[in-house]
Amino acid sequence: MLNVAVKAARAAGAIINRAALDVEAVRVSQKQINDFVTEVDQAAEQAIIDTLLTAYPGHAILAEESGSERGSRHSDYQWIIDPLDGTTNFIHGFPVYCVSIALAFKGRIEHAVVYDPTRNDLFTSTRGRGAFMNDRRIRVSKRTRLGECLIATGFPFRPGDDFQTYLLMMSDVMQRTTGLRRQGAAALDLAYVAAGFSDGFFESGLSIWDVAAGGLLVTEAGGLVGNFSGEADFLEQRECLAGNPRIYGQLVTLLGKYSKFATAGDKATVRQALQRKKDAAQPAETSNDASIDEAQADQPQDDESAPD
């Protein structure tokens, strides 16, 4: 099954690489503000599904663009597919995107493939057998101090996203780490945590196809993955936190209060921080308005009776 997933990912990658040669010619449509789909997403997804169902016609499919339209909906085996994670990067020619394929059996992820077609990097994993990058065993980083770590994240970009809360989260992390990075492809972010290229990752608003494959890569590479509160059942909770075991624990301590599953006390603390931030901004806005009024008052007034 893993070999079939690799074959499907490489077929999708070939389509993506061909399209990347002339990205300006790719037709793009907008699902919602700042959320795009291209004909390449659709063609890559079709190639993946065709490859998988040719080998396993009785399996179920859950794909980002076509949902569960294909395959058998009642199978214990379900393929979870993101044909092009990082579409916004792709349509701008920014070479950070990937193909993500996972296989779940009775709801538990058993196989995972994340393929980066621009670098020809193939990340694979099977439950209980470790994680690999280009057939080389990978492990999460060994750093133990958050202050030494490079952390990846994703920024909110959809209408209705709680941007102010995310600014608080990023502020908490940025002040305590070596750096914060935003690549724009969550599946690749998780693969990089598995490979030890970064030490942790957090993002909210993610769908199951964004995190299913990458999550298995992290755990099979010796890391931990869950929601912001540290609970392991995260796949459909739209918040994801990953890291090596020591850093994961420190990130949970730092970011747990922002989880939708946080205690009432923690949620109140976040609300108070947001209110303080809002209150601190208001005097500055008032001061700016006053400065504008004073400047306007100092300007010479037009006088129609004045001589030319």
Task: Write a compact overview of the structure shown.
By secondary structure, this protein is of the alpha+beta class.
Plain-language structure description:
- The protein is α+β, with helices and mostly antiparallel strands and 308 residues long.
- It folds into 2 domains: 2-137, Fructose-1,6-Bisphosphatase, subunit A, domain 1 (Fructose-1,6-Bisphosphatase, Chain A, domain 1), CATH 3.30.540.10; 146-258, 3-Layer(aba) Sandwich (D-Maltodextrin-Binding Protein, domain 2).
- It has helices at 2-20, 39-55, 87-91, 163-174, 186-195, 208-220, 245-255, 264-298; strands at 28-32, 35-38, 60-63, 77-85, 98-105, 108-116, 121-126, 131-133, 136-137, 150-153, 179-182, 200-204, 224-226, 239-243.
- The chain has a 7-stranded mixed sheet with strand order 3-4-5-6-7-8-9, sandwiched between helices. Strands 11-10-12-14-13 form a 5-stranded mixed sheet, sandwiched between helices.
- The longest helix has 35 residues, at 264-298.
- The radius of gyration is 23 Å and the shape is globular.
- Residues 300-308 have low confidence and may be disordered.
**What is the third-level CATH name, the topology of the largest domain?**
Fructose-1,6-Bisphosphatase, Chain A, domain 1
Give the overall shape: globular
Helix and strand element order: HEEHEEHEEEEEEHEHEHEEHH
Q: How many helices?
A: 8
Pfam families: Inositol_P (PF00459)
Enzyme class: hydrolase
Keywords: Hydrolase, Magnesium, Metal-binding
Cofactor: Mg(2+)
Task: Kindly list the characteristics that best describe this protein.
308 residues; 2 domains; 14 strands; Fructose-1,6-Bisphosphatase, Chain A, domain 1; disordered C terminus; alpha+beta; D-Maltodextrin-Binding Protein, domain 2
